[in-house]
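Quick one - inputs below.
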Amino acid sequence: MNLIVNGEERAVASPPLTALLHVLRDELGVTGPKAGCQQGGCGTCTVLVDGEPRRSCLLPLAAVDGAQITTVEGLGDLDDLSTVQAAFHARYAAQCGFCTSGMMLAAHALIEHNGGVGAELSREQVQAALGGHVCRCTGYVKIVDAVIAASRGDVEPSVGIAPIPGEPQVETPGAPA
Amino acid sequence: MTTLSSAVDLLVPTSVAEAVEAFGDGAGVTVLGGGTILTPEISQGRLAPGRTLLLTRAGMAGVSGDGTLTIGAMTPVAALADGTPEPLASAARNVGDPEIRAQATLGGNLCAPAGGLEAPRGDLAAPLVALAARVRSAGAGGERTEAVEDFLAAPEGRLVLAVEVDPPRAGAWVAQRRRHTHAYTLLGVAAAETADGVRIAAAHAGARAARLVSVEAALAGGAAPAEAAAAALDDVEPHDDALASAWYRARILPVLVARAIDQLRGA
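Output:
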Protein backbone atom coordinates (compact mmCIF):
# COMPACT_ATOMS: atom_id res chain seq x y z
CA MET A 1 0.00 0.00 0.00
CA ASN A 2 1.12 3.61 -0.31
CA LEU A 3 0.37 7.03 1.05
CA ILE A 4 1.24 10.49 -0.25
CA VAL A 5 2.41 12.17 2.94
CA ASN A 6 2.85 15.94 2.74
CA GLY A 7 3.32 15.64 -1.00
CA GLU A 8 5.81 12.77 -0.90
CA GLU A 9 4.85 9.28 -2.03
CA ARG A 10 5.71 6.70 0.64
CA ALA A 11 5.39 2.93 0.29
CA VAL A 12 4.13 1.35 3.51
CA ALA A 13 4.56 -2.19 4.78
CA SER A 14 2.28 -2.09 7.83
CA PRO A 15 -0.57 -4.63 7.90
CA PRO A 16 -3.68 -3.34 6.09
CA LEU A 17 -5.77 -2.78 9.23
CA THR A 18 -3.09 -0.79 11.07
CA ALA A 19 -4.52 2.56 12.12
CA LEU A 20 -3.17 5.41 9.96
CA LEU A 21 -1.93 7.09 13.17
CA HIS A 22 0.45 4.22 13.85
CA VAL A 23 1.54 3.90 10.23
CA LEU A 24 2.52 7.59 10.29
CA ARG A 25 4.18 7.61 13.71
CA ASP A 26 5.73 4.14 13.97
CA GLU A 27 6.51 3.13 10.40
CA LEU A 28 7.11 6.49 8.74
CA GLY A 29 8.43 8.47 11.72
CA VAL A 30 5.92 11.28 11.17
CA THR A 31 5.13 12.21 14.75
CA GLY A 32 3.03 15.36 14.25
CA PRO A 33 -0.25 13.49 14.85
CA LYS A 34 -0.45 12.41 18.49
CA ALA A 35 -1.69 9.23 20.17
CA GLY A 36 -4.05 10.77 22.73
CA CYS A 37 -7.21 8.87 23.59
CA GLN A 38 -6.77 6.55 20.62
CA GLN A 39 -10.54 6.19 20.45
CA GLY A 40 -11.41 9.13 18.21
CA GLY A 41 -12.63 11.37 21.00
CA CYS A 42 -9.85 13.94 21.48
CA GLY A 43 -8.70 15.14 18.07
CA THR A 44 -4.95 15.03 18.73
CA CYS A 45 -4.56 12.42 15.97
CA THR A 46 -6.37 14.50 13.34
CA VAL A 47 -4.72 14.68 9.92
CA LEU A 48 -6.06 15.80 6.55
CA VAL A 49 -7.05 13.00 4.17
CA ASP A 50 -7.44 14.42 0.66
CA GLY A 51 -7.84 17.82 2.35
CA GLU A 52 -10.51 16.69 4.83
CA PRO A 53 -9.88 16.49 8.61
CA ARG A 54 -10.13 12.92 9.89
CA ARG A 55 -9.16 10.96 13.03
CA SER A 56 -6.11 8.97 12.02
CA CYS A 57 -6.58 6.63 15.00
CA LEU A 58 -9.89 5.53 13.49
CA LEU A 59 -8.76 4.98 9.90
CA PRO A 60 -7.43 1.58 8.85
CA LEU A 61 -4.56 1.89 6.38
CA ALA A 62 -6.52 -0.01 3.73
CA ALA A 63 -9.22 2.67 3.74
CA VAL A 64 -6.73 5.42 2.84
CA ASP A 65 -4.43 3.50 0.47
CA GLY A 66 -3.21 5.99 -2.13
CA ALA A 67 -4.65 9.05 -0.39
CA GLN A 68 -3.02 12.46 0.16
CA ILE A 69 -2.22 12.79 3.85
CA THR A 70 -1.35 16.19 5.30
CA THR A 71 0.15 16.41 8.76
CA VAL A 72 1.29 19.48 10.69
CA GLU A 73 4.74 18.97 9.21
CA GLY A 74 3.18 19.77 5.85
CA LEU A 75 1.58 23.05 6.86
CA GLY A 76 4.71 25.16 6.95
CA ASP A 77 8.31 25.53 8.15
CA LEU A 78 9.82 27.39 11.06
CA ASP A 79 11.01 30.06 8.60
CA ASP A 80 7.77 30.06 6.69
CA LEU A 81 4.81 29.45 8.94
CA SER A 82 1.41 28.93 7.41
CA THR A 83 -1.26 31.53 8.16
CA VAL A 84 -2.80 29.30 10.83
CA GLN A 85 0.57 28.55 12.43
CA ALA A 86 1.52 32.24 12.50
CA ALA A 87 -1.82 33.11 14.08
CA PHE A 88 -1.43 30.40 16.77
CA HIS A 89 2.04 31.76 17.54
CA ALA A 90 1.00 35.40 17.66
CA ARG A 91 -2.14 34.69 19.72
CA TYR A 92 -0.44 32.36 22.23
CA ALA A 93 -2.85 29.58 21.30
CA ALA A 94 -0.49 26.73 22.24
CA GLN A 95 0.82 25.79 25.69
CA CYS A 96 1.97 22.18 25.90
CA GLY A 97 1.29 21.77 22.20
CA PHE A 98 -0.25 18.29 22.36
CA CYS A 99 -3.58 19.33 20.84
CA THR A 100 -2.04 21.92 18.56
CA SER A 101 -1.31 19.77 15.52
CA GLY A 102 -4.90 18.55 15.35
CA MET A 103 -6.34 21.99 16.08
CA MET A 104 -4.30 23.66 13.36
CA LEU A 105 -5.07 21.06 10.72
CA ALA A 106 -8.80 21.24 11.45
CA ALA A 107 -8.57 25.05 11.39
CA HIS A 108 -6.65 24.99 8.11
CA ALA A 109 -9.33 22.84 6.48
CA LEU A 110 -12.13 24.97 7.94
CA ILE A 111 -10.66 28.14 6.45
CA GLU A 112 -9.95 26.48 3.09
CA HIS A 113 -13.53 25.21 2.82
CA ASN A 114 -15.14 28.50 3.89
CA GLY A 115 -13.82 31.13 1.53
CA GLY A 116 -10.10 30.92 2.34
CA VAL A 117 -7.97 33.51 4.09
CA GLY A 118 -9.83 36.82 4.01
CA ALA A 119 -13.28 35.40 4.74
CA GLU A 120 -13.64 35.91 8.49
CA LEU A 121 -15.18 33.03 10.43
CA SER A 122 -17.50 33.46 13.40
CA ARG A 123 -16.81 32.05 16.86
CA GLU A 124 -19.76 29.68 16.38
CA GLN A 125 -18.34 28.30 13.14
CA VAL A 126 -14.95 27.71 14.71
CA GLN A 127 -16.39 26.11 17.84
CA ALA A 128 -18.62 23.82 15.78
CA ALA A 129 -15.82 22.71 13.47
CA LEU A 130 -13.24 22.20 16.22
CA GLY A 131 -15.79 20.90 18.74
CA GLY A 132 -14.29 17.42 18.75
CA HIS A 133 -10.83 18.66 19.73
CA VAL A 134 -9.93 18.68 23.42
CA CYS A 135 -7.37 21.02 24.99
CA ARG A 136 -6.30 20.61 28.60
CA CYS A 137 -4.19 23.75 28.82
CA THR A 138 -5.56 26.85 27.16
CA GLY A 139 -9.27 27.03 27.92
CA TYR A 140 -9.88 27.29 24.16
CA VAL A 141 -10.42 31.09 23.95
CA LYS A 142 -7.06 31.87 22.39
CA ILE A 143 -7.33 28.94 20.02
CA VAL A 144 -10.63 30.29 18.70
CA ASP A 145 -9.15 33.81 18.55
CA ALA A 146 -6.20 32.49 16.54
CA VAL A 147 -8.39 30.66 14.05
CA ILE A 148 -10.55 33.75 13.54
CA ALA A 149 -7.45 35.91 13.12
CA ALA A 150 -6.06 33.44 10.57
CA SER A 151 -9.35 33.44 8.68
CA ARG A 152 -9.12 37.24 8.53
CA GLY A 153 -5.54 37.11 7.33
CA ASP A 154 -4.62 39.12 10.43
CA VAL A 155 -1.31 37.49 11.29
CA GLU A 156 1.40 40.15 11.47
CA PRO A 157 2.88 39.28 14.87
CA SER A 158 5.12 42.33 15.17
CA VAL A 159 2.84 45.34 15.18
CA GLY A 160 -0.74 46.18 15.99
CA ILE A 161 -2.74 42.95 16.15
CA ALA A 162 -6.35 44.07 15.76
CA PRO A 163 -8.52 43.08 18.73
CA ILE A 164 -11.12 40.39 18.18
CA PRO A 165 -14.64 41.13 19.44
CA GLY A 166 -15.13 39.51 22.83
CA GLU A 167 -11.43 38.86 23.38
CA PRO A 168 -10.44 39.81 26.95
CA GLN A 169 -7.74 42.50 26.97
CA VAL A 170 -5.18 40.97 29.35
CA GLU A 171 -1.48 41.73 29.64
CA THR A 172 0.36 38.43 29.69
CA PRO A 173 4.03 38.87 30.68
CA GLY A 174 6.28 37.00 28.30
CA ALA A 175 3.61 36.40 25.65
CA PRO A 176 4.57 37.23 22.09
CA ALA A 177 3.60 40.83 21.18
CA MET B 1 2.18 -0.87 20.18
CA THR B 2 -0.01 -3.86 19.48
CA THR B 3 1.45 -6.05 16.78
CA LEU B 4 -1.13 -6.90 14.20
CA SER B 5 -1.11 -10.22 12.48
CA SER B 6 -0.51 -9.89 8.78
CA ALA B 7 -2.90 -12.80 8.25
CA VAL B 8 -5.80 -10.55 7.37
CA ASP B 9 -7.70 -11.69 4.31
CA LEU B 10 -8.76 -8.27 3.04
CA LEU B 11 -11.50 -7.97 0.45
CA VAL B 12 -12.26 -4.60 -1.13
CA PRO B 13 -15.30 -5.04 -3.41
CA THR B 14 -15.92 -2.41 -6.07
CA SER B 15 -19.65 -3.01 -6.46
CA VAL B 16 -22.66 -3.95 -4.34
CA ALA B 17 -22.89 -7.30 -6.11
CA GLU B 18 -19.25 -8.06 -5.32
CA ALA B 19 -19.81 -7.04 -1.70
CA VAL B 20 -22.81 -9.36 -1.39
CA GLU B 21 -20.88 -12.24 -2.91
CA ALA B 22 -17.82 -11.63 -0.75
CA PHE B 23 -20.02 -11.47 2.38
CA GLY B 24 -21.72 -14.79 1.65
CA ASP B 25 -23.49 -15.82 4.84
CA GLY B 26 -21.23 -13.62 6.92
CA ALA B 27 -19.57 -16.48 8.80
CA GLY B 28 -16.13 -15.38 9.97
CA VAL B 29 -16.42 -12.06 8.10
CA THR B 30 -15.60 -8.73 9.73
CA VAL B 31 -17.34 -5.88 7.90
CA LEU B 32 -15.61 -2.49 7.94
CA GLY B 33 -17.71 0.51 6.98
CA GLY B 34 -16.32 3.85 8.12
CA GLY B 35 -14.13 2.14 10.72
CA THR B 36 -14.92 4.50 13.59
CA ILE B 37 -16.14 1.72 15.88
CA LEU B 38 -13.94 -1.20 14.87
CA THR B 39 -10.53 0.42 14.32
CA PRO B 40 -9.81 1.09 18.01
CA GLU B 41 -10.92 -2.48 18.80
CA ILE B 42 -8.42 -3.78 16.26
CA SER B 43 -5.62 -1.38 17.27
CA GLN B 44 -5.95 -2.33 20.92
CA GLY B 45 -6.04 -6.06 20.26
CA ARG B 46 -9.65 -6.71 21.28
CA LEU B 47 -10.62 -7.77 17.78
CA ALA B 48 -8.42 -9.81 15.43
CA PRO B 49 -10.19 -9.93 12.07
CA GLY B 50 -9.42 -12.70 9.61
CA ARG B 51 -11.60 -12.33 6.53
CA THR B 52 -12.29 -8.58 6.35
CA LEU B 53 -14.72 -6.87 4.00
CA LEU B 54 -13.84 -3.17 3.49
CA LEU B 55 -16.82 -1.39 1.94
CA THR B 56 -15.25 2.00 1.15
CA ARG B 57 -15.18 1.32 -2.60
CA ALA B 58 -18.38 -0.70 -3.03
CA GLY B 59 -20.52 2.21 -4.21
CA MET B 60 -22.92 1.80 -1.33
CA ALA B 61 -23.22 5.47 -0.34
CA GLY B 62 -25.90 7.95 -1.40
CA VAL B 63 -29.43 9.17 -0.78
CA SER B 64 -31.94 8.78 -3.61
CA GLY B 65 -35.64 8.82 -4.24
CA ASP B 66 -38.61 11.14 -4.38
CA GLY B 67 -40.93 10.62 -1.47
CA THR B 68 -39.57 7.35 -0.09
CA LEU B 69 -35.83 7.78 0.35
CA THR B 70 -33.33 4.98 -0.17
CA ILE B 71 -30.17 5.61 1.85
CA GLY B 72 -27.12 3.48 1.08
CA ALA B 73 -25.47 1.76 4.03
CA MET B 74 -22.13 3.50 3.44
CA THR B 75 -23.69 6.99 3.45
CA PRO B 76 -21.70 9.09 5.94
CA VAL B 77 -23.62 10.22 9.01
CA ALA B 78 -22.74 13.82 8.04
CA ALA B 79 -24.71 13.40 4.81
CA LEU B 80 -27.82 12.47 6.79
CA ALA B 81 -27.82 15.80 8.62
CA ASP B 82 -29.29 17.63 5.62
CA GLY B 83 -31.83 16.26 3.21
CA THR B 84 -33.22 13.41 5.27
CA PRO B 85 -36.39 13.76 7.32
CA GLU B 86 -36.60 14.47 11.02
CA PRO B 87 -35.94 12.91 13.47
CA LEU B 88 -33.13 11.24 11.51
CA ALA B 89 -31.49 14.52 10.44
CA SER B 90 -31.23 15.95 13.96
CA ALA B 91 -30.09 12.64 15.40
CA ALA B 92 -27.35 12.47 12.75
CA ARG B 93 -26.26 16.04 13.44
CA ASN B 94 -25.95 15.12 17.12
CA VAL B 95 -23.53 12.23 16.62
CA GLY B 96 -19.96 12.83 17.78
CA ASP B 97 -18.36 15.79 16.05
CA PRO B 98 -17.77 16.85 12.42
CA GLU B 99 -14.76 14.58 11.85
CA ILE B 100 -16.54 11.55 13.29
CA ARG B 101 -19.70 12.27 11.31
CA ALA B 102 -17.75 12.54 8.09
CA GLN B 103 -16.26 9.07 8.55
CA ALA B 104 -19.02 7.13 10.34
CA THR B 105 -21.69 5.45 8.22
CA LEU B 106 -25.42 4.74 8.50
CA GLY B 107 -24.82 0.99 8.24
CA GLY B 108 -22.09 1.03 10.86
CA ASN B 109 -24.25 3.03 13.23
CA LEU B 110 -27.17 0.65 12.73
CA CYS B 111 -24.96 -2.37 13.41
CA ALA B 112 -23.13 -0.82 16.39
CA PRO B 113 -22.66 -3.38 19.15
CA ALA B 114 -25.26 -2.81 21.83
CA GLY B 115 -25.13 -2.78 25.58
CA GLY B 116 -22.49 -3.77 28.03
CA LEU B 117 -20.53 -1.20 29.98
CA GLU B 118 -19.20 0.55 26.89
CA ALA B 119 -20.23 4.03 25.90
CA PRO B 120 -23.58 3.94 24.09
CA ARG B 121 -23.36 3.88 20.31
CA GLY B 122 -25.81 3.56 17.50
CA ASP B 123 -28.08 6.58 18.02
CA LEU B 124 -29.68 6.28 14.60
CA ALA B 125 -31.62 3.07 15.29
CA ALA B 126 -34.20 4.95 17.41
CA PRO B 127 -35.09 7.59 14.78
CA LEU B 128 -35.33 4.83 12.18
CA VAL B 129 -37.72 2.88 14.44
CA ALA B 130 -39.81 6.03 14.94
CA LEU B 131 -39.90 6.48 11.16
CA ALA B 132 -40.94 2.84 10.59
CA ALA B 133 -37.93 2.55 8.29
CA ARG B 134 -37.06 -0.64 6.44
CA VAL B 135 -33.65 -2.30 6.13
CA ARG B 136 -32.54 -4.05 2.95
CA SER B 137 -29.87 -6.62 3.72
CA ALA B 138 -28.04 -9.54 2.15
CA GLY B 139 -26.91 -12.83 3.70
CA ALA B 140 -27.94 -16.46 3.96
CA GLY B 141 -31.16 -16.92 2.00
CA GLY B 142 -30.47 -13.90 -0.19
CA GLU B 143 -31.59 -10.30 -0.04
CA ARG B 144 -34.56 -9.22 2.05
CA THR B 145 -36.26 -6.04 3.18
CA GLU B 146 -37.75 -5.91 6.66
CA ALA B 147 -38.87 -3.46 9.34
CA VAL B 148 -35.91 -1.99 11.16
CA GLU B 149 -37.07 -3.46 14.51
CA ASP B 150 -37.11 -6.93 12.95
CA PHE B 151 -33.61 -6.39 11.53
CA LEU B 152 -32.31 -5.20 14.90
CA ALA B 153 -33.77 -8.24 16.64
CA ALA B 154 -31.56 -10.56 14.54
CA PRO B 155 -28.75 -8.66 12.81
CA GLU B 156 -26.19 -11.51 12.80
CA GLY B 157 -25.18 -12.78 9.41
CA ARG B 158 -26.74 -9.84 7.56
CA LEU B 159 -24.97 -7.24 5.42
CA VAL B 160 -26.91 -3.96 5.44
CA LEU B 161 -27.23 -2.61 1.90
CA ALA B 162 -29.65 0.30 2.33
CA VAL B 163 -32.36 1.77 4.52
CA GLU B 164 -35.72 2.93 3.13
CA VAL B 165 -37.47 5.86 4.82
CA ASP B 166 -40.92 7.31 4.13
CA PRO B 167 -41.01 11.01 5.03
CA PRO B 168 -43.27 11.58 8.08
CA ARG B 169 -45.70 14.46 8.58
CA ALA B 170 -43.47 15.63 11.43
CA GLY B 171 -40.47 14.42 13.41
CA ALA B 172 -38.73 15.33 16.65
CA TRP B 173 -35.45 14.36 18.33
CA VAL B 174 -34.44 15.20 21.90
CA ALA B 175 -31.10 14.07 23.31
CA GLN B 176 -29.14 14.20 26.53
CA ARG B 177 -25.37 14.28 26.17
CA ARG B 178 -22.50 14.65 28.59
CA ARG B 179 -19.99 17.20 27.42
CA HIS B 180 -17.04 14.92 27.93
CA THR B 181 -14.33 13.98 25.51
CA HIS B 182 -16.33 11.40 23.63
CA ALA B 183 -19.63 13.30 23.43
CA TYR B 184 -21.78 10.21 23.24
CA THR B 185 -25.55 10.52 23.61
CA LEU B 186 -26.51 8.92 26.89
CA LEU B 187 -30.23 9.01 26.15
CA GLY B 188 -32.28 10.11 23.15
CA VAL B 189 -35.94 10.12 22.18
CA ALA B 190 -37.16 10.10 18.58
CA ALA B 191 -40.77 10.77 17.65
CA ALA B 192 -42.48 10.80 14.27
CA GLU B 193 -45.99 11.35 13.01
CA THR B 194 -46.24 8.67 10.34
CA ALA B 195 -49.09 7.59 8.10
CA ASP B 196 -49.93 5.00 10.80
CA GLY B 197 -49.89 7.43 13.69
CA VAL B 198 -47.33 8.64 16.20
CA ARG B 199 -44.33 6.38 16.81
CA ILE B 200 -41.84 7.02 19.60
CA ALA B 201 -38.53 5.27 20.25
CA ALA B 202 -35.78 5.66 22.84
CA ALA B 203 -32.05 5.44 22.14
CA HIS B 204 -29.91 3.99 24.96
CA ALA B 205 -32.64 3.71 27.56
CA GLY B 206 -31.94 -0.02 27.41
CA ALA B 207 -29.19 -1.75 25.49
CA ARG B 208 -31.14 -1.56 22.20
CA ALA B 209 -33.41 1.05 20.64
CA ALA B 210 -36.84 0.59 22.21
CA ARG B 211 -40.20 1.48 20.75
CA LEU B 212 -42.33 3.12 23.46
CA VAL B 213 -45.67 1.50 22.64
CA SER B 214 -47.23 2.34 26.00
CA VAL B 215 -46.53 6.03 25.44
CA GLU B 216 -48.00 5.78 21.94
CA ALA B 217 -51.13 4.08 23.30
CA ALA B 218 -51.54 6.70 26.05
CA LEU B 219 -51.29 9.52 23.51
CA ALA B 220 -53.77 7.80 21.22
CA GLY B 221 -56.09 7.59 24.23
CA GLY B 222 -55.92 11.34 24.72
CA ALA B 223 -53.39 11.60 27.54
CA ALA B 224 -51.43 14.83 27.93
CA PRO B 225 -47.71 14.65 27.05
CA ALA B 226 -46.37 14.42 30.60
CA GLU B 227 -48.92 11.75 31.54
CA ALA B 228 -48.20 9.72 28.41
CA ALA B 229 -44.44 10.13 28.95
CA ALA B 230 -44.68 8.53 32.39
CA ALA B 231 -45.65 5.28 30.67
CA ALA B 232 -42.19 5.09 29.03
CA LEU B 233 -40.84 3.03 31.92
CA ASP B 234 -43.44 0.35 31.15
CA ASP B 235 -41.68 -0.22 27.81
CA VAL B 236 -38.03 -0.27 28.75
CA GLU B 237 -35.83 -1.06 31.71
CA PRO B 238 -33.00 1.49 31.83
CA HIS B 239 -29.47 0.14 32.22
CA ASP B 240 -26.11 1.22 33.65
CA ASP B 241 -23.21 1.93 31.34
CA ALA B 242 -20.05 4.01 31.14
CA LEU B 243 -21.92 7.30 30.88
CA ALA B 244 -24.96 7.09 33.09
CA SER B 245 -26.69 4.97 35.68
CA ALA B 246 -30.02 3.21 35.29
CA TRP B 247 -31.35 5.48 38.04
CA TYR B 248 -30.45 8.62 36.10
CA ARG B 249 -31.87 7.30 32.86
CA ALA B 250 -35.12 6.34 34.59
CA ARG B 251 -35.41 9.86 36.00
CA ILE B 252 -34.90 11.73 32.77
CA LEU B 253 -36.45 9.41 30.17
CA PRO B 254 -40.01 10.64 30.86
CA VAL B 255 -38.78 14.24 30.71
CA LEU B 256 -37.19 13.72 27.31
CA VAL B 257 -40.27 11.85 26.05
CA ALA B 258 -42.55 14.73 27.10
CA ARG B 259 -40.25 17.21 25.35
CA ALA B 260 -40.21 15.12 22.20
CA ILE B 261 -44.02 15.00 22.13
CA ASP B 262 -44.25 18.75 22.64
CA GLN B 263 -41.69 19.32 19.90
CA LEU B 264 -43.55 16.97 17.57
CA ARG B 265 -46.82 18.79 18.13
CA GLY B 266 -45.23 22.19 17.77
CA ALA B 267 -43.42 21.18 14.57
